[in-house]
Amino acid sequence: MQKFYATGKRKTSAARVWVKEGEGEIKVNGKPVSDYFNGLETEILKILYPLKVVNLENKVDVIATVKGGGITGQAEAIRQGLSKALVEYDPNLKAKFKPLGLLSRDAREKERKKYGRRKARASFQWSKR
Q1: Which ranges of the chain does DSSP label H, i.e. alpha helix?
Q2: What is the pTM of this model?
Q3: Is the domain defined by 4-100 classed in CATH 3.30.230.10?
Q4: In sequence order, what DSSP letters do the residues of 88-100 get, joined into one string?
């Protein structure tokens, strides 16, 4: 049985995703996806979206390891990695994923804190007197 691999990134999260033919089992860091994301439906739906677009929900197994970031960043990193792995699995799917933006990396990162300021742009409260 052949496995297809891809990497997905978002903010500070990085996900490694493997896809193989199976019954539709999705594991994240060794746990079922619903347990890993504590039943957060929106994050689970983000991950399942590429599979729903191409009707492969019950035809492939997904194994993902993800590090860094928060819940949303991890879910979106897995979604990008899964989309790229599915293109490795079947190159014809690229035409469906490309217009939906599932293959492109969201490059937005947190802006660094500047000196003399509270955060990147927020300043300390200023008093005239």
Answers
A1: 33-36, 41-53, 71-89, 94-100
A2: 0.90
A3: yes
A4: HH-GGGHHHHHHH
Q: Quick one: which of 87, 9, 19, 15 has its CA closest to 53?
A: 87
**Ranges of each domain in the chain:** 4-100
Q: What is the pLDDT of residue 39?
A: 82
Cα separation, 90 vs 98, whole angstroms: 14
In what helix (H) or strand (E) does residue 26 lie, and over which residues does it extend?
strand 26-28
The model's pLDDT over 45-88, given as tens digits with 9 standing for 90+, comes to 999 999 999 999 899 999 999 999 999 999 999 999 999 999 99
Residue 28 and residue 78 in contact, taking contact as beta carbons nearer than 8 Å = yes
Separation CA 55–CA 70 (nearest Å) = 28
**Per-residue pLDDT, 1:** 80
Q: Is the pLDDT of residue 129 over 90?
A: no
User: d(Cα 64, Cα 10) in Å, to the nearest integer?
Assistant: 15
Question: Among positive and negative, which fits the CA dihedral 95, 46, 82, 112?
Answer: positive
- Give pLDDT, residue 7: 97
The closest alpha carbon to 88, from 28, 26, 2, belongs to 2
